[in-house]
Design a protein that fits this description.
Number of helices: 34
Largest sheet: 2 strands, antiparallel
Shape: elongated
Structural class: alpha+beta
Distance between the termini: 148 Å
Radius of gyration: 49 Å
Strand content: 5-15%
Strand order of the largest sheet: 1-3
């Protein structure tokens, strides 16, 4: 039977090159951890993860029950740090010293780039201060508080006492002033150091040293602080409660801090310790960047100010301190009223919102807070689609614009961004005046109307505003039906057309849109020339007339405009009886006929036989 070593030759060779071997490199050693045939557990191990290790190291199982357990230990992941076969490092560590720690603690590696590094950290000896597996203390420390520091730093040494101003600092917390790993500051001071500490003038705040007792303050808080800090800065109209109560230490460390301005916690964490009602709000979808970045003091003065809510500046002046480009944009053209008066918070939440742009309400609901009269227009019959769906910003800018009514662009361009088919009518040969000038609102309401197409007035009322000369034609006796009912767009394109009069179709084809039966009739038999030419307007007015059938002239005068009554042949055909007052349609149809001469299909028998003298005296 072949053994493990026969197949795993490369592994054996690698193990033999290492200084430390977990077990003997032979068949017996392999079987202490592995099952020969690979039928049990993952990775062919005798037991799962740490349970396998504890079968040889039972004392570790009990040891690892302490309060603080290293994460890999808690997860039973021994091989996160230890090689299970062989290694060049003691304790079978996969890497040496802090290089092993940095595989997980990446943030610490970045911190150790600083110029001043604590000696154990510089030497890579993390285990000088930290336990590898478990501890009764936080951060797996080997000793509590200053006891850990005094393992190396003897507080009775003259050099130690001199550097600490002869004060009994061994009774203080070393980490209040010093970073245990690395710092940009000499003496491993924290990121933020109180100026007297940095300058070594401890007696600015404390009684002289040398008593051997816990150091005492020259004066109580806040008087001791006011000896350097201008008291007036903390006594303005609106005061932060800790400042008003003189409790500077509620927010600030006495000596040094890892946070800016000697804060006891990072800005937002510190603020939310008291302002817990804001925690839920800050979890909304859209969070103002000063809030998300922990910069409460970007907007608020932490001590006192002349502005409500401790704001660093008043109203828009505060907002524009960051939004500089907006400040320039919002200074000209048409400006939204809240922007004019600098009240950004009428529309925006200063902290967070579930609506993009940090607005206090979604869509048109926000606009209707002020523009209630516009909201009422939703009850009208014909509502503009963006307005009806609450998309005010589809047409309007929320802050400022060069256009009236805060439109995003010129009136026509805003309209044509949706109404592309109407935009193409600008290419027609003839464009209606208001359209040519981009003045859609001369005829249409921007939001809603009780009339179709959101018209401001009925069609005829709109048209008569400019075409007032046509209005007088309504007093004539015979009126074209569309004109009489005010349906101008039944014949005319309101925007643009290739016809000079903006007609929707050419000549007679427009008339046939309504006169359907006539179109069929007028294409049969003998056809009157104007009808055949499709020139209805040769005989008829378009809007109204004094004459029946809205003729251009009286019947006889109209016919006489083409037919010369005085011509000899014409009179002969009409037996010399025709006068300018004769009624031509008594015998002839004006459009078309199956009879030659456009005669009516039914006639008096002598007349149809051409025997006029039966009834008339012939000349």
């Amino acid at each position: 039977m072949r053994g493990c070593l026969a197949c795993h030759k490369e592994d054996v060779q690698r193990f033999q090159q290492q200084e430390f071997h977990h077990v003997s490199i032979d068949e017996e050693g392999c079987r202490k951890c592995h099952v020969s045939h690979g039928v049990a557990n993952k990775l062919v191990l005798v037991k799962e993860k740490a349970e396998l290790c504890y079968s040889c190291h039972p004392q570790k199982s009990m040891e690892f029950q302490k309060d603080q357990v290293h994460y890999p230990v808690a997860k039973g992941d021994c091989t996160r740090c230890h090689d299970p076969h062989a290694a060049s490092n003691k304790n079978f560590l996969t890497k040496q010293g802090q290089a092993l720690c940095f595989t997980c603690h990446l943030e610490m590696e970045e911190e150790f780039v600083d110029s001043n590094i604590h000696d154990p950290a510089k030497l890579g000896n993390c285990d000088a201060c930290h336990e590898s597996h478990t501890s009764e203390l936080p951060k797996l420390l080997k000793a509590a508080g200053n006891d850990l520091c005094t393992n190396c730093h003897d507080h009775q040494e003259p050099q130690f006492q001199t550097s600490h101003g002869q004060y009994a600092v061994e009774k203080a917390n070393c980490l209040e002033c010093h970073n245990p790993h690395a710092s940009k500051e000499e003496g491993l001071f924290r990121k933020s150091v109180h100026q007297p500490v940095a300058g070594g003038v401890c007696d600015s705040c404390h009684e002289p040293s040398g008593t051997g007792e816990v150091v005492t303050m020259v004066a109580k808080e806040p008087e001791s602080c006011y000896s350097c800090h201008d008291e007036e800065e903390y006594k303005k109209k609106y005061q932060h409660r800790p400042a008003r109560q003189g409790k500077c230490s509620s927010c600030h460390q006495d000596h040094a801090s890892k946070n800016a301005s000697l804060l006891t916690e990072s800005s937002n964490t510190l603020c939310l310790q008291c302002h817990q009602e804001d925690i839920a709000e800050f979890k909304k979808q859209y969070v103002h960047s000063p809030v998300s970045e922990g910069k409460c003091i970007g907007c608020h003065n932490p001590h006192s100010t002349e502005n409500d809510f401790l704001l660093a500046k008043l109203d828009a002046n505060l907002c524009f301190s960051c939004h500089e480009t907006e400040a320039q944009k919002y200074s000209q053209g048409t400006i939204h009223a809240p922007v004019v008066v600098g009240k950004c918070l009428i529309c925006h939440d200063p902290h967070a919102s579930n609506t993009k742009g940090h607005v206090v309400e979604q869509g048109s609901k926000l606009c209707y807070r002020c523009h209630s009269e516009v909201e009422e227009q939703l009850q009208k019959r014909d509502v503009h689609q963006p307005f009806g769906s609450g998309k005010c910003l589809q047409c309007h800018d929320s802050h400022a614009t060069a256009q009236k009514s805060l439109l995003k662009d010129t009136e026509a361009k805003v309209c044509y961004s949706c109404h592309t088919s109407e935009a193409r009518k600008l290419d027609a040969l003839f464009v209606h005046g208001p359209i040519n000038k981009g003045q859609c609102n001369i005829c249409h309401a921007g939001h809603a109307s009780d009339l179709n197409y959101q018209l401001l007035k009925t069609e005829d009322e709109l048209c008569f505003q400019c075409h007032d000369d046509l209005q007088s034609e309504l007093s004539l006796e015979h009126i074209h039906a569309p004109f009489e009912t005010g349906l101008c767009s039944q014949c005319h394109e309101p925007h643009g057309a290739d016809d000079k009069m903006f007609l929707k179709a050419e000549d007679s084809q427009l008339c046939y849109n309504c006169h359907i039966e006539e179109e069929v009739q007028f294409r049969q038999g003998f056809i009157h020339k104007p009808v055949g030419d499709g020139d209805c307007r040769a005989c008829h007015e378009s809007h109204a007339s004094e004459h029946k059938s809205i003729l251009l002239k009286s019947e006889s005068d109209l016919c006489a405009s083409c037919h010369d009554y005085q011509q000899e042949d014409f009179q002969k055909v009409h037996i010399q009886s025709l006068t300018e007052s004769s009624k031509c349609t008594g015998c002839h149809t004006p459009h078309s006929s199956e009879q030659t001469g456009l005669f009516h299909p039914y006639g008096h028998l002598p007349y149809t036989d051409g025997e006029c003298d039966v009834c008339h005296e012939m000349p």
